[in-house]
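hey can u check if this looks right to u? its 114 residues, i copy pasted from the old doc so theres a chance i mangled smth
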Amino acid sequence: VQLQASGGGLVQPGGSLRLSCAASGNIFSLNIMGWYRQAPGKQRNLVATITSGGITNYAESVKGRFTISRDNAKSTVYLQMNSLKPEDTAVYYCEMVVRGVWYWGQGTLVTVSS
């Protein structure tokens, strides 16, 4: 399984960004996709996940601001990030769990700064 993330960049506080992550390879139809983030000097933490059935889970810090969605036909997961704050600055990693095996994409940097 390969994961290709895109959509990071520099945005001002209060702005929006949309991240995308496309999966390819031997993908089983039942899986969980999601996003984690890692700020400088900190551990990698959950942002949001979504099952193939559409059940979502969010970190408390992003609830109401971020929305995770997926297109199963395209094996792609999205993260719509609104009302961004400087503390959202981090490298964002997409992940997929298939039959208990974790896969990670390359990170994409999101910088929230004026």
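The chain has a mean pLDDT of 95.
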